[in-house]
UniProtKB/TrEMBL annotation:
One Gene Ontology term, aspect cellular component: cytoplasm
Organism: Coniophora puteana (strain RWD-64-598)
Residue ranges constituting the NAD-dependent epimerase/dehydratase domain according to the UniProt record: 9-241
Gene Ontology MF: a single term: aldehyde dehydrogenase (NAD+) activity
Protein name: NAD(P)-binding protein
Length: 341
């Protein structure tokens, strides 16, 4: 019998490769699924590194802009996992087109499954780094993305996914994870998170570590190991029918509550020790470093985003690594890894 197919976009990334490494622990049986991985740099080294993480894996060479290829591959797959770029609506639409065609042509079998990684900034209060006395705390138990402002970050991907999961005819079983800023040194192929690399580059350019606005907003963070386990717990619930997606498809993934300026200060202190900046600590960056207020990065870094992942807890998920090491504790080591890459 042929194995069910998972089409995976972004498997070489920080979250993707961490989840691929742990996949076998969450499948009905080890190696029960065949993976097709979209990879833009399909060098023999990348292919072999991916197959080292999960052996029954083939690579299809392409980018997120190869819409026809993505649609065709999604149509041939039982499950699509997308840990690539949550701000790339064209590739999401191509995936949904392929899965919709599959749902139509296999109407008597269970609907195909789509697991998508988005971001927590859908609920950003856009305070631009200012102190807010009682910022809203969000639970995913009553979260309905279609009720959020339609100009929130990620909505160009979230809304078509919500539509495909809720429609009456040929629905797709959709699941969306919305992680906070992810931290920790990964065990997969990309070992550091983009925002640490981004902060280092901005700090070097400005000669000091900075904040977007005052940096007084608070963010929920999550260790990369726990994002991977969250994705795989949801995947397992989808495969076993324990979770159906649709209206309840969004899972907030974050548990700490850390001020933006708390991690910015650690970056400043570390980089001063390495003589890469001229000041300790942090102070607000000018707009030539941050870009204009309320742009994408202000919404991501400089809004209050405090969440409670109750849907994940209900599935038995635990943020084990986040409990052991918070976002600040391991930051100096993550900076070392990012700088030495
Ligand atoms: N890291 C965080 O703190 C964080 C927080 C919240 C949400 N997220 C979201 O989580 C997802 C994964 O993030 P990550 O940190 O794992 O990112 P990452 O390390 O940059 O990984 C992104 C993956 O997508 C692939 N990719 C990106 N653009 C592509 C393109 N145009 N064509 C083909 N492949 C492409 C990359 O391939 P290459 O190996 O070739 O680069 C890589 O496999 C993203 O959607 C991100 O927005 C991340």
């Amino acid at each position: 019998m042929t194995k069910p197919v998972i089409f995976w976009l972004g498997a070489t990334g920080y979250v993707g490769s961490e989840a691929l490494l742990a996949l076998n622990q969450y499948l009905p049986q080890p190696d029960s699924h065949h993976i097709v991985s979209l990879v833009r740099d399909a060098s023999p080294e990348k292919i072999s590194a991916l197959q080292h993480l999960y052996s029954d894996l083939e690579v299809v060479k392409g980018t997120l802009d190869d819409g026809d290829l993505i649609t065709k591959t999604a149509e041939q797959s039982d499950v699509v996992i997308n840990t690539a770029d949550s701000l790339h609506p064209a590739s999401v639409k191509a995936i949904l087109a392929g899965l919709t065609a599959r749902a139509k042509s296999n109407a008597s079998t269970p609907a195909p499954i789509y697991v998508h990684i988005s971001g927590i900034s859908i609920i950003s209060d856009r305070c631009n780094g200012a102190y807010v006395e009682h910022p809203k705390e969000w639970s995913d138990k009553d979260l309905d993305v279609t009720k959020l402002p339609h100009d929130a970050v990620h909505m160009e991907c979230e809304l078509p996914i919500a539509e495909a999961g809720r429609r009456v005819d040929h629905p797709i079983r959709t699941f969306v994870l919305n992680p906070g800023l992810i931290y920790g040194i990964g065990a997969g192929m990309q070992r550091t998170t983009f925002w640490v690399r981004d902060w280092i580059e901005k700090a070097k350019k400005a000669s000091y570590s900075g904040t977007f606005g005052e940096g007084a907003n608070a963010l929920s963070h999550i260790h990369v190991h726990d994002v991977a386990s969250a994705l795989l717990v949801v995947l397992r619930a989808a495969l076993t029918g324990k979770a159906q997606g649709g209206k309840d498809c969004n899972y907030l993934v974050g548990v700490s509550r850390t001020e933006q300026r708390a991690f910015a200060k650690v970056v400043g202190d570390c980089l001063l020790g390495k003589k890469l900046v001229k000041e300790a600590g942090c102070r607000p960056w000018p707009e030539d470093i941050t870009g204009p207020k309320d742009n994408l990065w202000w919404r991501i870094y400089a809004g209050n985003q405090i969440v409670h992942p109750n849907r994940l807890y209900a599935l038995g998920w635990e943020p084990t690594e986040t409990k052991k090491q918070g976002p600040i504790d391991g930051l100096p080591q993550a900076i070392d890894v990012a700088l030495n890459k």
